[in-house]
Amino acid sequence: MQPDYDDCWLRYDEVPDGDLRESYRRLCTHAYVAEESRELGAVREELRRGLGGMLGRDPHLWQHPPRTVDGFLAVGTPGDMDVVAQAVDEDEIADLDEGGYVITTSEWEGIDTLVVTASSDSGLVYGTFHLLRLMAAREPVADVDIVEEPASPDRLINHWDNPFRGSMERGYAGQSIFDFERLPDLRERYRDYARLLASVGINGVILNNVNTQIPGREEGNEAMEELEGWRLLETRYLEKLTGLASLFRRYGIQTYLSVNFGAPEKVGDLDTSDPNDSEVEQWWAQKADEVYDLIPDFGGFLVKADSEGQPGPYNYDADHVDGANVLARALEPHGGRVWWRAFVYGSHKDRAVQQYDTFEPLDGEFHDNVTVQVKNGPIDFQPREPISPVFGQMPETDLGLELQITGEYTGQHVHACYHVPMWKEVLEFDTDPEGHGKRVKDLFTDEGTGMAGVGGPGEDRNWTGHYLAQANLYGYARLAWDPDLTTAEITDEWVKQTFGTDPDVVETVTEIMHGTWPAVIDYSTGGIGLMHMMYNGSAYLENHYDPGPEEWPGYTGITEDGIGKDRNSKGNGYAQQYPEALAEMYDDPESCPEELLLFFHHLPWDHELDDGRTVVQTLYDNLYAGVEETQRLRDEWRTLEGEIDDERWRHVAERFDEQVEHAGVWRDRLSEYFYEHAEIPDEQGRVPTDD
């Protein structure tokens, strides 16, 4: 029975008649695949799906090399198969990083052979998906020679799932795909999710929301307690996770959990969770032993501590090193890792300042199996932020880059917003252009480092709430694997696999995708460094979809005299957290990049920018330009009617209608808000005045 959900980029549409189809059939109709592990079972299943769909016939899977054919596909390690050993240099394969693979062509006993090989079974999984990706994009495979290794050793998804409620945080893509109460029973959708992740090189999944308790809940309310993710450390739930972990294992994906720092009290009935208490240390060690007895390849713990109502070491007059290291010591005998989030705020009026002040002095003190997970910017996944000053300035600490796949502040998957161009801006950033720094992308290549994408699909038919938002999951994973890939390369891959290879469709969808992020920046911020102007509401019922700039004067710095916040030497000194060359650039409004100008500087409304326009006029113009661009993108999408299937065309068209309407809401509210304070009319008369 066909699942009632989308195939995303694993559609495997049949290749039309022609030379390419014949070439694919000659090399891939027959496949000889090793059978030594469960991962290779996943390889065989995927070849049946992919080759069967694209070639219009099921492949013949052999247990030995076929001798009566014109060509065949061989998948295995050199140690598994002589066919492979003859085609490659075994030492070169052995030297590949974990997950690396080779795709090449050779000849065996006069028969053309297409070879996928690796030193590990996970590499064979990734290599198989790469081959199928080439074929789905209609690339030739008759003379390939590809060597691939992942840049980041850990490439994780941080799920925003709330166990037991069956919900996703914010709910942008429907309910959670995971039903924790019914585990260890497995749904077919879990397998298809694992396939999606493995196809783009993800090797770790944190199953539950990093917010593992609800701040302010009524103590003793058992119904509320049943909603909270900290309970996943209870034995009864750990036992339920074994089947899901086994399924992910087939695709080279490790299972992780978000854990509550107060678990020794909540789960273990201790009277403290003090990381320097010997009984607490013993409890964590025993709990780690229990976890690994059930899930031998368990990846480790993700922890959010001392932030947004989650408990942490500060509750016990300890610091983040104390908190992270007690968990690290428990996991170390099993090869597990602690991912300790650096997103903390509350003790400073401006959250931008606190992260560096908190963590940079601790550099070099974290245990070897601790990764400090740092968001790309200092605020919270805004449409555009400066790069966190933590990057490049904690050389003795393993760091992880946290990016948000979910569009929390970019339209919540109602609006189309392609995050890959934003992430490329982050990854290419030079952390110390006149010193010994590295680009951000170069910080996550050593053992213990990596990337973490926050979000995860939901139960919606399209997985992500918006068909175009699938590209953010795809693009995040591809960048985690290879941050040197360009936006254009990733977009081209995704569009061809998702919507087909018709040149006009590819060109139109690509142009739309590349236009979405700049438009969102313009209509939701004004485009010159403002951010955090959304409606909030009550705790844990935040809207974050509608504009609410009046709630955040501390972030906008708005007054009758001007707008922006002095995060510079005249203000709170945030700019001085960067190395000297960057600090000097950000500290002077004449050299500060215009796209970040009001983040670093409070400027008069009539301050002139390089093009002669004033600050307030630039804000007005950008707000209106963002809406106009969104209207243009909607119109471009409408030209695709009849060129792609009606379901996906209609869904995206309707979403664009809502986006245009809602972008206008943002434009009108922000422009009115700016006028209310500046009392300077729009030169083009678009903004209502009191006159």
Instruction: Compute the number of helices.
Output: 22
What is the residue-mean pLDDT, rounded to a whole number? 94
What's the CATH topology name of the largest domain?
A: TIM Barrel
CATH class of the largest domain, anyone?
Alpha Beta
The count of strands amounts to 18
Low-confidence spans: 218-227
Morphology: globular
**Any guess at the CATH architecture of the largest domain?**
Alpha-Beta Barrel
**Beta-strand percentage range:** 5-15%
Bin the helical content: 25-40%
Number of domains: 3
The CATH superfamily title of the largest domain: Glycosidases
Rg, rounded, reads: 26 Å
Largest sheet: 8 strands, parallel, barrel
Main sheet strand line-up: 7-10-11-12-13-14-15-16
**Structural class given helices, strands, pairing?**
alpha/beta
* Gap between N and C termini: 65 Å
Question: Nutshell version of this structure?
Answer:
Helix content is 37%, strand content 12%. It is of the alpha/beta class and 691 residues long.
Notes on the protein architecture:
GO terms for molecular function: alpha-glucuronidase activity; xylan alpha-1,2-glucuronosidase activity. One of its GO terms (biological process) is xylan catabolic process. Residues 136-463 form the Glycosyl hydrolase family 67 catalytic domain. Residues 8-131 form the Alpha glucuronidase N-terminal domain. Keywords: Carbohydrate metabolism, Glycosidase, Hydrolase, Polysaccharide degradation, Xylan degradation. By secondary structure, the chain is α/β, with parallel strands linked by helices. It has three domains: 19-148, Chitobiase/beta-hexosaminidase domain 2-like (Chitobiase, domain 2); 154-486, Glycosidases (TIM Barrel, Alpha-Beta Barrel); 521-565 and 602-678, Alpha-d-glucuronidase, C-terminal Domain. Helix content is 37%, strand content 12%. The protein is built from 22 helices and 18 strands. The chain has an eight-stranded parallel β-barrel. α15 crosses α16. The protein starts with 18 loop residues before the first helix and ends in a 13-residue tail after the last helix.
